[in-house]
Amino acid sequence: MDNLNYGIIGNCRSAALISKTGSLDWCCLPEFDSTSVFAKLLDEKKGGSFGIEAVGNYQIDQKYYRDTAILTTHYADGDNVFEVMDFMPRYLKRNGKYHAPPEIVRYVKYISGRPKLRITYDPKLEYAMGETLTYIKEDFVASLTHQEKYDTLFLYTSFDKEGVIGSKELILEEDGYFLICYNEKILKPTTIKMGLELERTKVYWLDWVHKAPTYKKFNNEITRSAITLKLLTYDKTGAVLAAATTSLPETIGEVRNWDYRFCWIRDASMVIKVVSELGHMNSARRYLQFIIDLMPDKDEKLQIMYGINKEKKLTEKSLDHLAGYKGSKPVRVGNAAYKQKQNDIYGILMDVIYEQLVKFSNDIENGEELWSITKGIVWIVGMHWKEPDKGIWEFRGEDKHFTFSKVLCWVALDRAIKVAKMFGKTRKIEKWTALEQEIKEDIHKNAWNSDINAFVQSYGSRHLDASVLLMESYGFIHARDPKFVSTVKAIEEGLSNDGLLYRYKNEDDFGLPSSSFTICTFWFINSLFKIGEEEKALEHFERLLSYSNHLGLFSEDIDFKSKRLLGNFPQAYSHLALIECAINFSKKESEERILESLG
């Protein structure tokens, strides 16, 4: 089966995807949301790639170097053995700042014999819109385009440049390297220097992983997911991307293709909650600052998403010259959803502010700003909570009173009241509590359907929706409350398909989905665990883990029938839900061991 068998490398400035056989098929430089320099992922013929092919009958294995974002592809043909170690440099400099240039290093490690390899170096700048010309210069290979827009890319290598560009057979007798740079180098690279970049980057990741606690169960899965989330973080502003790609379809051949290289307030704030639980406080702090910077005016409404450099306008357009992933058109850049109204984001934001105040209560420099934002959020929710919206799934059709949005309006008030107590602002509490109660009663009255014994997708509907499972994790309802237990059972019966969940089953703007939204299955597993069906939850979790790709990575969706990964990749949302589930199972195991030792 043709799956998303890619590994991601990156340095919190940009990222690249490398296939199971060592072909670099997706990369945007200098930043995540820049135009692509390699985009074979979106067009096999036109997109451009950088392949390293072993000549002969080689066995190829790929894995990450333990606890790092360095991807190792191992080629072996009897005595002839070599490895390619792919990474984007990232490490701390003497001045306390991070070295994270827009560069990819492909370090070729000689192991034994006389391996032969052939290179296909075919960059296509600016989304392959115009022609890219490649020239061999004295110190490097330069590629440039100037039809649509002027852009350049540089390749430095220890190998014979003519042999590389001419795809000639190269014999490997010692370590070598390829360095792809967005900018021309001032100091000439060497194999020794590239080896040093490799070691420094290795140390950076090992140190970073070491900050997190070790878990009794699923520790490797938690670590790989945490590294993946870190790779989707944009260092300069603290933004967190939904995924590293654009236009990987939810269903092959259909039009549900979106650009995910942006920061959704909802996804990103959930990421921060999990990341701070793993001990990475700096990421949490910087993301909080990113949000504060986005809210300059008290009256300014929050968008559901922003560009990674805080852009507010994300105009969507189609790249019609690209064939799309497996022929799935259109390829879109930009995302029109930025204009949508989703009332849940205020609750999500308020939840993050509250979490951070609990964790950093001793050293919050921006307490006054956070109190201003809190008051602003309550004012906006008070004005707008009764209005319909597009909901968590961004329906492009008519607005409705979505249950999830209403629950999150309640969360906004609940957390704001807690923040008011922390800051000793007692005068607000009484007024806010009345509103919080009003929203809660409204949800119990209008979102509960006694015919199907469950909370439903929107007021007055009969449709089930996986997002209502989050009612419990946000503290709206207790896990053992009969209404929640019967909602979980109804969702299991109505939305589960061979252990994978539909987000919902009612037809949306594009018809009935044929793939499962990965995070929904994790939410369901968590809910089973919480209502006491722990063995069943664990069984589901282990099965779901088996659907990841060969490196333990998940995209946004999984096809119900074939179990292939679909949608943008790797998906932050999927990995943070994986971590949440895994931590629950691990904590349970620890508690049981403590009880056994006491018993």
Write the layout of secondary structure elements.
Blueprint: E1 6-10, E2 15-19, E3 23-28, E4 36-38, E5 49-54, E6 59-64, E7 71-77, E8 80-87, E9 91-92, E10 98-99, E11 103-112, E12 116-122, H1 125-128, E13 133-136, E14 141-145, E15 151-157, H2 161-165, E16 170-171, E17 176-181, H3 191-210, H4 219-231, E18 233-234, E19 239-240, E20 263-264, H5 265-277, H6 281-294, E21 305-306, E22 317-318, E23 332-333, H7 345-359, H8 367-384, H9 403-422, H10 426-446, E24 448-449, E25 454-455, H11 470-473, H12 482-495, E26 496-497, E27 500-501, E28 515-517, H13 518-530, H14 534-545, E29 557-559, E30 565-566, H15 572-598
Antiparallel strand pairs: 1-2, 2-3, 3-4, 3-5, 5-12, 6-7, 7-8, 8-11, 9-10, 11-17, 12-16, 13-14, 14-15, 15-17, 18-19, 20-21, 22-23, 24-25, 26-27, 28-29, 29-30
Helix pairs in contact: 4-15, 5-6, 5-7, 5-15, 7-8, 7-9, 8-9, 9-10, 13-14, 13-15
